[in-house]
Amino acid sequence: MSTVGHDRYRHVELRWLAVLAWWLLSTEVDLSGWTLKVPGRNSPAHLPLARSGLLTAAQVRAVETVDPAGNPAPLSWQGRQPRLPGANWAVLDELLGEGRLRIIPDLADPRRSIRPRDDDDYRFPWLTNLGLNSAAIDSHDYQRFLADADLVLTELIDNVHRWSRARSALAVVSTTRGSTTRGSWNRLHVIVADAGAGIPAALRDDIAALSAVHEASQHPGPLASLTDADLVEHLMRYAFGDRHVPKHNGQGLNVAQVRAGQWVGAIDVVTVDVAGTPLRKSSHGVNPAVFEGDDAIELPEARGTLIHLTLQATSRRDDAARYEQLELPGSGLALALPSL
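Above: the chain's sequence. Below: its structure in token form.
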């Protein structure tokens, strides 16, 4: 029996918990007999597990979830009413205290694809009810923030149905609240994970889309010159939605990267290359000179793509930029694996 975990809780950056959630959702490893041991529901350490999608992924994959006493502790969304518009979101706000939590556990279902809408309407009107407004953001910026959040969420969900050919996928939207006593601001966290083809494989299968990536680049080169990691970064950096690319609008990752930077947030893209090896590209700010990256993450038999995005609902961008460096994750999490 082996375990993966942290022995104490502190301020959690969701990135690595979201990566674990994506792996749990997508891996082709046989998960029979696996148990996810989590802190009690009333523990602060339980919150990031819900926000990261880890509890959702465990239930989708039928991995038993238990509390410290060994009692079943599944995340339950069945029978939740009302479901929210724009792909049938379940509401699980009670798990986050003052925060908000919305999930789509079956995002790969064709019924969860984004429907056409009038240009003046939000696809996700419930974004206005997440409590993201505060004294730290002025009214004009708040309306722009909501519009950007709606656009990003639309693009990322649309990408699952346009690109991934996924057998399963999930989406999680959550909020964290700033301290009113310090005049802080609220934050929106978006996680979209799928068990599909992976971005490089999907892109290389579509010659027109692959050519558009290079045409959109400021320094196009031979198609064969880009590694799979380079292709992912190009999708994040450059928009080519006006190039009439069949099937794919090609804007999703660029829209998400730009909007995250404008709201002093970050975007992490974790996907598999054509050989099935996970890789990561992460951006802080709008089109930074250098993206963070990992070219060989050890996650056995992972598939598909994870997008993790944070937007900070504030007009105080200088303050937010100073705050934006978060601590490494710690969650009180232990994943119990059967003996091999």
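The chain has nine helices and eleven strands.
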